[in-house]
Design a protein that fits this description.
301 residues; alpha+beta; Alpha-Beta Plaits; 4-stranded antiparallel β-sheet; 8 helices
Length: 301
């Protein structure tokens, strides 16, 4: 069996006590992910921590947290940890499955000043849970791309993505808080080419810029605190993209990247809770359902 290279694990957590004033938790989630990797492979964790290039991991902030109500022990919250390479996925899986690890079921984790107990872990693997969380998944780059690249599926003219944490892109030295086609798929292309065994042509970015249009959207701007007292503004909600020039080859690659978004996230700050997104199908959640999901997420970063 091919080694898992793409992993999106979802942790269900319950606070030990109520916390009214919850600080930004994206960086705490990132630290928890690195701690989990360190438990399984200290050398790998050190390379991830010191590396300056695109990192093969993403972490969400605490999903379900409301700024107005804070953390409540009668409720559960979720946290997503993702890996984009086989070594990181293997280390994270090992930590999630070991009873003595810092991210095992039953373990208490600290996110900033909040202490939460892990009640459930969904890795997306069928032998772990037959009905995983919608954001939990485990696969390989080959399996993710095969339905599109081997011609099993005809790419649709339209596709919709859901953005559940503020998503912004750096372009020409500025941050753009709108998932425009060229920025979104250009970001996904960069991450894909950084880690996938098969590199996609750079012309795919041009196709996204010139032949995809943002046709419908339900987006809101959200701001999150960043270092040195600044704010990062990004979009949450859903966006629908339409091909103005239908080309089966290029659209197949676009759909691979859209599926890849579940693991990679898009835009800036994906390791600290920003840019969490995935492709959705109309009728499964629909635009209003996705908007409700986005409204319930923690946007503190």
């Amino acid at each position: 069996m091919t080694e898992i290279s793409l992993l999106s694990a979802v942790l269900t957590l319950r606070p030990a006590q109520a916390v009214a004033d919850v600080p930004p938790l994206g960086r705490a989630a990132h630290a928890l992910l690195l701690n989990a990797v360190h438990w399984a492979d200290a050398a790998l964790a050190e390379r991830l921590h010191s590396g300056s290039e695109v990192r093969p991991l993403t972490a969400s902030s605490l999903i379900g947290l409301s700024r107005s109500s804070g953390l409540r022990p009668e409720r559960t919250y979720t946290l997503r940890l993702a890996a984009l390479t086989a070594p990181v996925a293997a280390a994270l899986l090992a930590a999630l499955r070991a009873d003595s690890s810092p991210v095992a079921v039953g373990a208490e984790v600290r996110l900033a000043d909040a202490v939460l107990r892990i009640e459930q872990i969904d890795t997306g693997l069928a032998n772990d849970r037959p009905h995983p969380h919608p954001w939990a998944a485990a696969t390989h780059y080959e399996d993710l791309s095969a339905p599109w690249l081997l011609g099993r599926l005809a790419p649709p003219r339209h596709l919709t993505l859901q953005f559940t944490s503020p998503t912004a892109f750096k372009s020409a030295g500025r941050h753009v808080p709108v998932p425009l086609p060229g920025l979104l798929f250009g970001s996904l292309l960069d991450r894909w080419n950084a880690f996938a065994p098969v590199v996609f042509p750079p012309e795919l970015r041009r196709y996204a810029e010139e032949c995809l249009a943002l046709s419908m959207y339900q987006l809101q701007t959200r701001s999150v605190p960043v270092k040195e007292g600044g704010l990062r503004v990004g979009a949450v909600g859903t966006a629908r993209y339409a091909a103005t020039n239908y080309d089966r080859y290029w659209l197949s690659l676009i759909n691979v990247l859209a599926d890849f978004a579940l693991f990679a996230g898009a835009g800036v700050g994906t390791t600290i809770g920003l840019g969490q997104c995935r492709k959705i199908t109309e009728g499964r959640e629909g635009r209003s359902g996705a908007a409700r999901h986005a409204d319930s997420a923690d946007y503190s970063g």
